[in-house]
Design a protein that fits this description.
alpha+beta; four-stranded mixed beta sheet; 4 strands; 26% helix
Length: 81
């Protein structure tokens, strides 16, 4: 766990495949306040590039960090506006 940011909410999309992790991440981030960080837990390896690409092309969000675990991929997305 990274101490540089606090997790405002955790979104569990384990078992979901593309494009659902991104769709659900977008929906969850819309409900957060500016500066909040959303932790996304996914089992789809494609979510690494999918969420990275989505965050890079979306105004108001920033991909803070990604971690590749044994079975779970963790993504940390900050709402910036």
């Amino acid at each position: 766990m990274n101490a540089e940011f606090d997790i405002a909410e955790t979104l569990d999309v384990k078992g979901a495949s593309c494009p659902m992790p991104v769709v659900k991440t977008k929906g969850a981030i819309d409900d957060l306040a500016e500066g909040d960080v959303l932790e996304v837990l996914a089992t789809d390896s494609g979510s690494m590039s999918d969420i990275d690409g989505w965050a890079g092309g979306t105004e108001g969000v920033e991909l803070v960090e990604q971690e590749e675990g044994d079975d779970v991929y963790k993504h940390y997305v900050r709402k910036t506006e």
